[in-house]
Amino acid sequence: MKKGSSIIVTMLVLSGLLLTDAAFAGRVGKRQVRQQKRIYQGIASDQLSAKEVRRLQREQRRIQRSKRKARSDGELTAKERLRLERQQNRASRHIYRAKHN
Fold this sequence. Notes:
This protein is an all-alpha fold. Helix content is 82%, strand content 0%. The chain has helices at 2-22, 27-44, 50-71, 78-99. Helix 2 (27-44) packs parallel to helix 4. The longest helix is centred in the middle third of the chain and has 22 residues, at 50-71. The two termini are 22 Å apart. The mean pLDDT is 86.
C-alpha cells in the first residue's frame, strides 16, 4: 500500500509540472495533460501495475523533453509539432493497451 501511495504522490507532483507547462503549450500541452489524466485514472481503478505506470510516465517525460527542446528557440514549427503529435499518438496507444491488457 505504501508503494502505491508513493506512486500517486509522484504522479501528482508531475501533473503539477505538466499543468503549468500546458498553459503555454497549446494543443500539444493540453493533450499531454489529458494523457496524464488517463494514466491517473488507470492507477485509481487498478488497471495499471506499478511497472506499467513507470513505463508510461517515462514515455511522458520523454515527450515533455522533446517539447521543451522544440520550443527552445521560441517557436514550435509545423515539423516539430507533427513529430510531437506522432510521439503522443504512440503514447496514447501504449496507455490504452496497458489499461486494457
